[in-house]
Amino acid sequence: MKQLEVCLTPDLLQHYSLEGKVVVVIDVFRATTTMVSALANGISRITPVATLKECSALKEKGYLTAAERNGKKPGGFDLGNSPLNYLKHDYSGQQLAMTTSNGTLAITKSIAAHEIIIGAFINMSAVVAYLRAQSQDILLLCAGWKGRINTEDSLFAGAVAHLLANETELANDSAVAVQSLYQTHETNMEEFLKEGLHFNRLQRLGLDEDIEFCLKKDEYNLVPTYKNGVLIGVVYHPQ
Amino acid sequence: MKQLEVCLTPDLLQHYSLEGKVVVVIDVFRATTTMVSALANGISRITPVATLKECSALKEKGYLTAAERNGKKPGGFDLGNSPLNYLKHDYSGQQLAMTTSNGTLAITKSIAAHEIIIGAFINMSAVVAYLRAQSQDILLLCAGWKGRINTEDSLFAGAVAHLLANETELANDSAVAVQSLYQTHETNMEEFLKEGLHFNRLQRLGLDEDIEFCLKKDEYNLVPTYKNGVLIGVVYHPQ
């Protein structure tokens, strides 16, 4: 039986082996939700970069640029980190360069993995079906907030663990804990997440509409996959 | 209102400030349960040390010695890490030197705190009453397993957070998550913990009797406190 582990923050990644695993990078508020939204709404490919400088450099090469630091858009970039940007405007066919506080770091820390895919509630069932169809062991990597654990990424990891619990071995205690957390809060996610710090940080920034979108399940059947420094969207049709 | 934070493993302690805080060190299976049991059953003081060598050196000075690595007792020490040792034999008045895989490390990593106390289910209500009676912010530090998060320490942190939830601000997402976890499993702790890895590790070592004891609530009203390298037991009478 395939093993499924959960890592609650990239700061604990040293305890995990990446070799031969499919890593699901999770940053519900908002980077991975935004990546799914962008690719599902016409962006052709996304180049995640670590620094604002790298992001700016790609702007000069004709990329659309999206950047976020501390929940806000720094000056000089086209877009911030809202998944709704890609619904409100048509960026079809454009290449996007993207840098965020946590999500892009989690990707670059996972490059030793067999494969890296991107998960969020808006593509939850597609991610689960994708994982179900392949034979590798699974590592769900929560991006967290500056190295700290957060409730929203933990909850999504718990959702995936829960949906795969009968077909995988939940192979570490974090997986067991977040599965239980999701079972408890499956039907009242927003109420539970309201206690969390990042939820409140986003709410203070007036991002209620973003929050609501980030918690919608299964808006898209697309799984972003990371290869050679670039994310592309694989439309995944579960059988 | 006092703040209450939870740190799920010492490997994340760099994200927390220790200054001015009361730290509760938690290693349910079994170091902190054993510390409480030893002090409640006649041991006069405990000197936690990091290495087997330091522990041996204190044996030569007349200390009773207890040591554990990977759940087992290395050769050359009087006792392992079972809390039941102190019920089955009379060690009254003796000084104990103790080294364990995880619990003693969590203590030495916390020395910058205002105060360090020791928590486990067997002294749960005494710990809560002790925290209630003082004014410092609180950090619940789970010892984990070799840097990894475990379910039993998370669950105990959740119990304390739950019992203090009306009087403290749950100040990080880990605190919110473990409180929920405890609320869900308060009445079926063992069933939930059976999914966990360390529980299974101990069971494979034939330590069911230890496990059962470690999950008993409120056997003792004693709170071990750490000062100048030594743990002593403070009998705490909640009002």
From TrEMBL, chains A, B:
<comment type="similarity">
    <text>Belongs to the ComB family.</text>
</comment>
<dbReference type="Pfam" id="PF04029">
    <property type="entry name" value="2-ph_phosp"/>
</dbReference>
<keyword id="KW-0378">Hydrolase</keyword>
<keyword id="KW-0460">Magnesium</keyword>
<dbReference type="GO" id="GO:0050545">
    <property type="term" value="F:sulfopyruvate decarboxylase activity"/>
</dbReference>
<dbReference type="InterPro" id="IPR036702">
    <property type="entry name" value="ComB-like_sf"/>
</dbReference>
<dbReference type="GO" id="GO:0000287">
    <property type="term" value="F:magnesium ion binding"/>
</dbReference>
<protein>
    <recommendedName>
        <fullName>Probable 2-phosphosulfolactate phosphatase</fullName>
        <ecNumber>3.1.3.71</ecNumber>
    </recommendedName>
</protein>
<dbReference type="InterPro" id="IPR005238">
    <property type="entry name" value="ComB-like"/>
</dbReference>
<dbReference type="GO" id="GO:0050532">
    <property type="term" value="F:2-phosphosulfolactate phosphatase activity"/>
</dbReference>
